[in-house]
Amino acid sequence: MRDWGKESEYLHSTRRHLWNNDYFEFLVKCVWKIDKPVKIIDFGCGYGYLAQLFLPIIPKGSTYKGIDISEQLIENAKEIFCDNSESVSFEVADLNDYKPTAEYDVVICQAVLRHLPNPVQILKKMIDTAKDGGLVICTEPSRRLENAGVYIDSTDFYPFKNDDYLEQKWIKEIKSGGRDYQIGIKLPIVMERLGLKNIGVRINDYVDYVRSEDKDEISRFLSDHDVDSEFSDSNGFVAARCHVISYGNK
Ligand SMILES: C[S@@+](CC[C@H](N)C(=O)[O-])C[C@H]1O[C@@H](n2cnc3c(N)ncnc32)[C@H](O)[C@@H]1O
Known about the structure:
This protein is an alpha/beta fold.
């Protein structure tokens, strides 16, 4: 199993380029319609990035709890939120064994189901953790959509370059019981099968754009998007994040 505690730097870097805050606020206020205090639980919270997005815009009196298997990331999260101990809490736990002790208005996960061999089981646990009428939200990537969203201004750039690589990787990881590169796009159907109602689907509107002069940002882009460093002298870089956001009511 991948130890995300060792990839804290990658997590922090990619999270700085994952959401437009205004789009997240639009989801909270206009789509999920969170207009009174809520109890939120975040499955596989990492260092608490989603809490950073939620806290400034959810009604006062709301609480957030993050669960993660990585002790290192939970320690990091506790440091980041040390001034918010009344409304924010974190716990080290394996989602497979975790038994929630309360019911939540909002049960969310981001980029977690993609890495698990049993995403349906964990989604079921998320649904069981939500109150009646509560919201279950999954924001998960779909690797082929992500790949399609990359453009690099170079004569060497061929948009289908990664397709064979992705196909091989997808087959290998599915066969070995590993992560599912397509989970994001499948989730609304899985949610319906598991009995969720009022299912909605969105695509994150973040597009990462890097100008050719900004060498630090170029190396950040190549590493964040897992792009070959042969493109480091290219003229410009664009990638749509393509996270699929699926949500439904219990
Ligand atoms: C790609 S990271 C996403 C972290 C966070 N949701 C975010 O978007 O910044 C995946 C997270 O899932 C956590 N995770 C993986 N398997 C887990 C499990 N069985 N129980 C709890 N957390 C798990 C990892 O430790 C890691 O923090």
